[in-house]
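Q: I have 166 residues here and want to know how they pack in 3D. Can you give me a structure?
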Amino acid sequence: MSRFKLFAFIALITLVFGIAVVGDALAGEKGKVVVRDVFFSQGYLASTKVADVDGHAMNLLEAKGMSFSEKWGPCLLVLSVVQDYTKGVGPYEGYIHYTYSDGSTITIKIKGEGKAAGPGAKGEGTWTYLKGTGKFEGIQGGGTREYWVLGPGQWYADAKGEYTLP
């Protein structure tokens, strides 16, 4: 075998071994995530009054926006949530679907409590990863969220938590 072929063979074996080692090193990645979501909504998709007390309603809300994460960069989001609010206060539960520029996605479940109504209102809750595709395939974890209302159909949320990728 010529020196060139021997060198090429060793380089190929080194490359294959290196890919295998790096691949194993990235498997089981764990870390912390900090995210800011910014939402815009045209209003409720549906709202129905509940006849028990004044100001009680069940609302179905969809919002779109952007999300910013130091770990994974910016992406687009769609929120679908159901609110059981009395005068702007009460529990909510829903989902946020994030889409990144490479086509990878994350879907999370959120639930929590709206604490006040109108601009300056604040809410808090929890979130859990439900599904990931692309680079987020198999993602698990969750954390806490806080949101602040800026005005009609405008709010932002800060989320903190942990993730694990297989």
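Q: Anything worth noting?
A: The chain has a mean pLDDT of 87. The chain has one domain: 32-164.
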